[in-house]
Amino acid sequence: MPIVSASTGLHETLALLTSQLHPDADHKEDLVFLKDVFSERSLGYLMKIHDKLKQYEKQNPTPVLHSASCLAEDLAEELQSGPLDEDERELLLLLSTPHLKAVLSAHDTVAQKNFDPVLPPLPDDLDDDLEEESVKIVRLVKNKEPLGATIRRDEASGAVIVARIMRGGAADRSGLVHVGDELREVNGNLITHKRPDEISQILVRKQAFSCGIISSETVYLRALFDYTPFEDKATPCQEAGLPFKRGDILQVVSQEDATWWQAKRVGDCNLRAALIPSTQFQERMKMGSLPTPTSSLRRSFRLRKDHQSSSSEPHTPDANHADFLIYEEVTQYLLRPGERPRLIVLIGALGARITELKQKVIAENPRRYGLAVPHTTRARKSHEREGVEYHFITKAAFEADIHNGKFIEYGEYKDNLYGTSLESIHRILDQNKVCLVDVQPEALKTLRTAEFKPYVIFVQPHISHVQLDTVLLPQYCVHAHPSSFYTDQEDDLLEMKQSAEQIDKCYGHWVDYVLVKEDPVSALAELQVLLERVQMEPQWVPASWVRS
């Protein structure tokens, strides 16, 4: 009889055993039965699967980390933020070398790939009844990541069903688990009587497990609200939810589920998608059929009422009401040769002094930057020139322009009217100059169109924590009247803080960049760098601006 070593696979051992079955006269019937059983193709497939899994289990290629590049970048940024000793300086230099970056990138590429064994396919001529009742043994190695699937209990049968597969997760990469599959066991433990939350905990804890299972176009959205899955009782699986902040760019990879989309934050190293509420889900909440998941989302709904519907206003897919935007579909946009520059819109809180900042930018480079000259009804002074400081017009002409919608904003000061017209903006842009305007935030409703493609900068004055503590301290003194503690400066600080908060609350979802003005010199330098970047690098803009 052939010698079988410890390295001989089970399938090979079975084949050797079958070859040694020679029916004799005494045990002919039994041996023929054994030979038929061992020669059965389905048993042979099971043995092959067993051998593959055992071989894979011995290798166990589990990387310690699958995002080494991101960790190295975070470490480099941390080192750059403070003074360095000699060892830290050497480490920073090492992390900056292209060779090490290439090695870490190659490591991450390998770590994130799927090396699960490829199991032999079932034969095409299997009996239909047998195929319907067949059980797949699926082995998944998660590499310290979530499984990437959610489960639910079928109300009719009580079976544990795979509800959705997260794009890019371990289950999706394996190709072995599908929506609608029924889970029977995990690592040999029956789960039919366990609750879905208990099963989820088992799947989270296991790094590698075996399960017995019975067998769109990418869209980018800008989030207009903060979302925390662990505060959302409506989510089907809090662990599978994607937390994000207002302004984050989300890559939606699946909209197959009308209620919960699958998405990733742009820039994240994690390849696995996670759940975000869909616009249809929020529409149902607006109609009162579902509870609102988070307080931040409720605030966002109230703020969307500031929107005014117009033909130029961007609309989110599936959002039927302009006052109910929770996402804005966006795409990357870069100026093409010969195209007019993007309009730069500055809005500011009290104390930001953005007019002074804007004028300094233009004064340093008047050939590249221009100012929309305002209109006024007051008399021209001796040193002023028509079309330079102001356009001087009569009150009747000004009121006619108001009636015809020519101004983006206007107001009255000391019985004189002042306003900025759309024509004055076009005049600067047509000269191929970058036009800077500082307006009240309400004007964004008029300017935020495909015609101008504005880049909105919110300038805030720097208010230190020490200053705020000084202002807020009297609130805790109960033995004296609070007004006796306040000075004019403290009143100003409170007003500046409240102004910034109110603008952020009502218009923050339209802001592309927040510039905190600590001092005029650094603020000017930061703004100049930003202006160059806007015209030279791709930026996220509403998709409707590019399609129109």
From TrEMBL:
<dbReference type="InterPro" id="IPR036034">
    <property type="entry name" value="PDZ_sf"/>
</dbReference>
<dbReference type="InterPro" id="IPR001452">
    <property type="entry name" value="SH3_domain"/>
</dbReference>
<feature type="domain" description="Guanylate kinase-like">
    <location>
        <begin position="341"/>
        <end position="532"/>
    </location>
</feature>
<feature type="domain" description="L27">
    <location>
        <begin position="6"/>
        <end position="60"/>
    </location>
</feature>
<dbReference type="InterPro" id="IPR027417">
    <property type="entry name" value="P-loop_NTPase"/>
</dbReference>
<dbReference type="InterPro" id="IPR014775">
    <property type="entry name" value="L27_C"/>
</dbReference>
<feature type="domain" description="PDZ">
    <location>
        <begin position="137"/>
        <end position="203"/>
    </location>
</feature>
<dbReference type="InterPro" id="IPR036028">
    <property type="entry name" value="SH3-like_dom_sf"/>
</dbReference>
<comment type="similarity">
    <text>Belongs to the MAGUK family.</text>
</comment>
<feature type="domain" description="SH3">
    <location>
        <begin position="216"/>
        <end position="286"/>
    </location>
</feature>
<dbReference type="InterPro" id="IPR050716">
    <property type="entry name" value="MAGUK"/>
</dbReference>
<keyword id="KW-0728">SH3 domain</keyword>
<dbReference type="InterPro" id="IPR020590">
    <property type="entry name" value="Guanylate_kinase_CS"/>
</dbReference>
<feature type="region of interest" description="Disordered">
    <location>
        <begin position="285"/>
        <end position="318"/>
    </location>
</feature>
<dbReference type="InterPro" id="IPR008144">
    <property type="entry name" value="Guanylate_kin-like_dom"/>
</dbReference>
<feature type="domain" description="L27">
    <location>
        <begin position="61"/>
        <end position="118"/>
    </location>
</feature>
<dbReference type="InterPro" id="IPR036892">
    <property type="entry name" value="L27_dom_sf"/>
</dbReference>
<dbReference type="Pfam" id="PF02828">
    <property type="entry name" value="L27"/>
</dbReference>
<dbReference type="Pfam" id="PF00018">
    <property type="entry name" value="SH3_1"/>
</dbReference>
<dbReference type="InterPro" id="IPR001478">
    <property type="entry name" value="PDZ"/>
</dbReference>
<protein>
    <recommendedName>
        <fullName>Membrane protein, palmitoylated 3b (MAGUK p55 subfamily member 3)</fullName>
    </recommendedName>
</protein>
<dbReference type="InterPro" id="IPR008145">
    <property type="entry name" value="GK/Ca_channel_bsu"/>
</dbReference>
<dbReference type="Pfam" id="PF00595">
    <property type="entry name" value="PDZ"/>
</dbReference>
<dbReference type="Pfam" id="PF00625">
    <property type="entry name" value="Guanylate_kin"/>
</dbReference>
<dbReference type="InterPro" id="IPR004172">
    <property type="entry name" value="L27_dom"/>
</dbReference>
